Amino acid sequence: MAEGLISLRQQRDDLEETIEDIAHDYLSELVERCLVQVGRSGSTGTIKGCRIHDLVRDMCLLKAKEESFFQIKCSLQENTSSVAAEATQLRKIRRLAIYLDDENAYRLVSSRDETNGHVRSLLFFGPREWMPKSEKVLLSPLTNFKVLRVLKVERLWEREVELPSEIGNMVHLRFLSVRFSQIKTFPRSLGNLVCLQTLDFRVWYGDMVIPNVIMKMKQLRHLYLPREYRANGKLKLSTLGHLHTLDSLSTGYCDLKDVGRLTNLRKLKIRVSNSLQNLEEILKSTGSTLNRIRSLIVFVDNNSSEGQAMQIVSSCRGIYKLRLEGPIAELLKELHNYPNLTKVESRGRSHASSLSIEDASIWAKISY
After folding, report:
1. Engineering a disulfide at 52: which of 21, 56, 167, 334 sits with its beta carbon 3.0 to 4.6 angstroms away?
2. Pairwise CA distance, residues 178 & 203, whole Å
3. pLDDT tens, 17-76?
């Protein structure tokens, strides 16, 4: 989707159809033709994970290489001439995945600037096996990719990764993910990436400071914040009218009132970390948005926040999936009020053994 390979179809029967719906239809068609196998399904029948047969994979990789569509590199030869030869072969490649299994693989992107002009997607993955820690990974060479639309730097937990301020010049980026990488700071220049549709900040480092520039990314559809983070003041999110996924909204560093402006929001993870003032008024003003949410995750930091967490969940009557984390014993007693629920997960100090839920169908939905 980030590369524009999927476009909106003509609306049918006045139904609202998102680009995610279209992508799911295409994936389902591939499954029906046995080109893709379903690895994991969601509670509502959506495809959560998929895989392909090894023979189909080999055929796809061979065809992709012939068409200069995609190529995977796991390592490079140590001598400079071999690195240059590899770079020459990649001048027309549009999509490149690099597994950082050794020190030589990273040299590919910094060997020659002219090899970078065609790349649209660049995927970095950390070692598949443990490697000793080395110096931090500097991503400065990535600024040479002027037309990059997709950048993934994932699973680099053994090395500290530093994002350069020049990343703000990559104005064509639609997808940026640093999931499970060890990144401690983000440059404020990220606010220049106004075309971003997906931003994944779920980093390995637990004390992340998020710059208050996300409100400039008005095309965002999916925003993933770290489980724990800090910010200078409240993060402003009210301008993200296209947002479908918000993970994780911390009541300590985000204003819950902003949710009322997110009319396309369907998935919400919220961390109730402090006492909220005027919560009833806020929930009334955001009620129409909260009723549209289909997947809700609520994390309660302490017992004193449990009552307010209950109020938030009570405002989301249309949810299909609910996950509760923390001391949420009272929340489980109210599940019969949510007719669309197909799956409930409970983690933490729920005291489920002391609950008296008479409806057996509710118990069938709960997993611990």
Report:
1. 56
2. 6
3. 788 888 888 899 999 999 999 998 877 778 888 999 999 999 988 888 888 777 776 544
Parse the chain into domains and list their residue ranges.
19-51, 53-232, 241-368
Say whether 314 sits in a helix, a strand or coil.
Answer: helix
Buried b (16+ CB within 10 A) or exposed e, 266-294: bbbbbbbbeebeebeebbeebeebbeebb
Q: Cα–Cα distance between 219 and 197 in angstroms, integer?
A: 5
Which pTM does this prediction carry?
A: 0.82
- In whole angstroms, give the CA distance from residue 111 to residue 88: 10
The residues with which 154 forms a beta bridge, in sequence order, are: 125
Phi–psi pair at 207, nearest 5 degrees? -120, 55
Question: Which residue in this structure is represented by tokens 């994390």?
Answer: 299
Which H/E stretch holds residue 31? helix 19-32
Distance of CA 92 to the CA centre of its chain: 29
Per-residue pLDDT of 107-131, as tens digits, reads 545 544 555 667 888 888 776 555 5
Query: Which residue from 159, 111, 168, 154 is spatially nearest to 138, judged by alpha carbons?
Result: 159
Strand partners, 300: 272
Alpha helix positions (H), 234-351:
279-290, 306-314, 329-332
Nearest CA-CA partner of 78 in 113, 102, 55: 102
Q: How far apart are CA 246 and CA 127, in angstroms?
A: 29
The values of phi and psi at residue 349, to 5°, are -85, 70
Tell me the three state secondary structure of residue 323. Answer: strand
Question: Is residue 357 pLDDT above 70, yes or no?
Answer: no
Mean model confidence pLDDT for the chain = 78
Q: Which residue has the tokens 């980030």?
A: 2
